[in-house]
Amino acid sequence: MTGQDEYDRLLLENQLCFPLYACSKEVVGAYRPYLDDLDITYTQYISLLVLWEHGSYSVKELGTRLFLDSGTLTPVLKSLESKGLVKRERSKEDERSVIVTVTPEGYALRDRALSIPEKVGCRIRLEPNEAVELYRLLNKVLDGMESCEK
Predict the structure, then answer these.
(1) Residue 68 in contact with residue 100, Cβ under 8 Å?
(2) Residue range 28-52: average pLDDT?
(3) Contact 61/47 with Cβ under 8 angstroms?
(4) Which of these, 8, 56, 130, 137, could form a disulfide with 101 (CB 3.0-4.6 Å)?
(5) Topology (CATH) of 15-144
(6) Considering the entire predicted model, what is its pTM?
(7) CA-to-CA distance for 80 and 103, rounded, in angstroms?
């Protein structure tokens, strides 16, 4: 008969994935009332964050930056375009590439979103140095996800 110890690795309390999942779900949920006021989803919000920073991005680059595949990103961008917040155009240099650009209406929404990070941030009870360390560690996890064999 096998000992229970060998199954300890399957206990929920021993899974790093679970607190990451639960925190992600809760943090995204904390954004919901503020994003509802702007009539955008969380995925639309993070797409806009990148676009507000850069003005325009190819769909492929945006997907890479956000860890989203085109099947997820395309409907998000279509919705943002239908709201008049972005425009999508084929690249003049490479017809296969679609460039997404923020519209003036999209930039106007940025002004309305300015208070969101602070409002959500106050719900995450970390000291500033802890938040910086968590950010560093989470990015380390993301950077290392490709390195293990399946």
Answers:
(1) no
(2) 97
(3) no
(4) 56
(5) Arc Repressor Mutant, subunit A (1.10.10)
(6) 0.88
(7) 10
